[in-house]
Sequence to fold (277 residues):
Amino acid sequence: MTRRPPRLARVLSCALAAGTLLTIAACSSGDGDRDGSRVSGVTASQVAGKRQTPSPSPTATLSEDGARAALITEADIEEDWTQVKQTEAEDWHDTLLIGTVDVSDFLTAKTDAADCQRLLDSLFGDDLLGRPSGVSALRGFTQGDSRLLYQVASYDRTDPQDSLKWMATLPEKCAQFTATQKGEQRTVQVVETSLPNVGDAREGLRVTVQGTTGGTQATLTLDVAAVRVGEDAITVTAGGLDGGEQDSVDQAVKLGTQRLKDVLAGKTPSSNPSEFD
Fold:
């Protein structure tokens, strides 16, 4: 990947963070906690498969240690990303994602409004594919005013493929809609993005939210990806007020999928990401 010059800001702006985040460590990129795992349960509403690959999936059960080992590192996504502390990554919730979807935008299919609401809630709560039925682990990175959240989870008692199929419908159902929070309207757009041909199934989206934060007009852009490997899956969300991060998402998906496959095969993930470029 071509490295790009570092942005002027190497850490999150305190003023910006106060307007766009509910909770975040005080403008510190941190050293990074390498051993965190969790299951997310928060949603925004509480505050307000396709392209199958022919290769068979691994059948090993993902353990907590395996989920942590499958997480990507700074070397996997290159550029100028810096890993943050575990507690900071767990508390990332963009307030521009909070809002109640305006049902009047969906004159012919009101059920679509529920799918769009689910999208906002799941992005806010970091559970795009639903709550994992097995183990999960996450890792966060910052680069200027952008953030990248990477998660590995097991869905051994649910079906991540159903969630991938749901994601595939969103560019049509939720192409553009309005969400309202405390009288302020936000315009949300959803488009499909392409991902590297990895895993058993995959879906990519770009979600753009235009609204007001701290009295100032702002646009939040998130590139979102999910890849299924058997009954396990990885999800990546990256972007911010500076725009999307599709290149970094593609790199994370490509190398992260290989890390997960290695773990499920009983191997130690390579410390040399270029091996799979």
Remarks:
- DSSP finds eight helices and ten strands in the chain.
